[in-house]
Specification:
ATPase_NBD; 249 residues; alpha/beta; 6-stranded mixed beta sheet; Nucleotidyltransferase, domain 5
Length: 249
């Protein structure tokens, strides 16, 4: 079964049809740059461009980098503030002309990893963290998602953690892998103190380069692994959410 998934990020918007039997993209994904400023209308136009690239007709799942409740976007840390309290499900559905399901981007990636990837079969507390423009989080216990956790906004050394340890912070500060891994280690230790997970899954684009920084992280008791679906996890999770909404519907 194929359903379309779109992943809205701070720097790029990417999507593809997803084969939900395999938990993988059915076609090579199409990506466009996130408009700056990332206003609701600008982003909606880009999502429509990605979906239109495949001439897709049918349900569409969309991720959003912030808190989402009942299709409404409640926060907007790395996109335009105009998203706050926007009925994104209605906005995108109208723009695309297809039924839309929308959810937090890290939650989508987490659901995909728990079903098809690094978290499959794990029933303890599992935390997926996506490192990119910010830091997204998805927390699972007993295989169930605790939605919209936003652990990237935890305070660390007087700052939001994502300002200190995101991939963007690494790039902006021109940090070495060693220096950045030290920051990520401090962040993981802080999250571990609060939640005592058995497993951390590290996602986002940087998961492709896990060998450059994961071996440098020490002192964390939990197992730490890269996301198996890497940066496609959000697209897969978005499609899974759209299918779930369709079956409820």
């Amino acid at each position: 079964m194929e359903i379309f998934g779109v992943d809205i990020g701070g720097s790029g918007i990417k999507g593809a049809p997803v084969d939900l039997d395999r938990g993988d993209l059915a076609q090579e994904r199409h990506k466009v740059l996130t408009p700056q400023p990332a206003t609701p209308k600008g982003v909606a136009d880009c999502v429509a461009e990605v979906v239109g690239h495949f001439d897709w007709s049918g349900p569409v799942g969309v991720t959003f980098p912030g808190v989402v409740t009942d299709g409404v976007t409640r926060t907007a840390a790395n996109v335009d503030k105009g998203w706050i309290d926007t009925d994104a499900r209605a906005l995108l559905g109208e723009r695309i002309g297809q039924p839309v399901t929308i959810l937090n981007d890290a939650d989508a990636a987490g659901v995909a990893e728990m079903t098809f990837g690094a978290g499959k079969g794990r029933t303890g507390t599992v935390i997926l963290l996506t490192f990119g423009t910010g830091i997204g989080s998805a927390v699972f216990t007993g295989g169930e998602l605790v939605p919209n956790t936003e652990l990237g906004h935890l305070e660390l050394h007087g700052h939001e953690a994502e300002k200190h340890a995101s991939t963007k912070a690494k790039d902006d500060g021109d940090l070495s892998w060693q220096h950045w891994a030290h920051r990520v280690q401090k962040y993981l230790l802080h999250v571990e103190m609060l939640f005592s997970p058995e497993l951390f899954i590290i996602g986002g684009g940087v998961s492709r380069k896990a060998d450059k920084f994961l071996p440098l992280i020490e002192k964390v008791r939990a197992e730490i692994v890269p996301a198996q679906l890497q940066n496609n996890a959000g697209i897969v999770g978005a499609a899974m959410a759209a299918r779930a909404a369709q079956s409820k519907g």
